[in-house]
Amino acid sequence: MKPEELNQVPGNTPINPDELEGLIPDLSLKRELDEFERNNILDGYNWALSPRRLRSRDPLTEPYIRELHKKMFDQTWEWAGIYRWTEKNIGCLVHEIRDRIPALLGNASYWIEHQTFSVDEIAVRTHHEIVGRIHAFPNGNGRHARLWADVIAVKHGSTAFTWGQNSIAAIGPTRDAYFRSLRIADNGDIRDLLAFARS
Question: 66-79 in b/e burial notation, b at 16+ Cβ within 10 A?
């Protein structure tokens, strides 16, 4: 499989040849990779949203962020749970990731403790920051950020988000609405993203 075969969907983080070297299964078609990742991500959802784990783990810690990504992609990519080492067309510079993550976690913990925003808004704000402004991993950032937001919401008494009720992976109106709401949030207005997360 060549990087260009994986980089044709608008909005996907481009994968470079070094990152593609980390593909674990022997696959030759993008649809095979999509299916393989989908099954791996389902395992990650089951791990993250199990009642016992929700009770015992704090999602607002740096090791949890990496562990969640690893659980979602550990059967697919050797670099699952490892912060990216290449610059991308989105997110902060590589050397800023390890400073930006603790700052985000500190903000989110403060918001929770002081009830600065509703639980839903805190989860969506953290989602936007990690996927749009930090973009910590080589790939899978949107899927990781959405599950992380679900975990934060459920952990703090809300419910998992619906995220448009359709697959965001497929090109179409749901994906378009998601990316449109992210761009609006980039300019400081979180309302559309919050509404989309609950639509």
Answer: bbbbbbbbbbbbeb
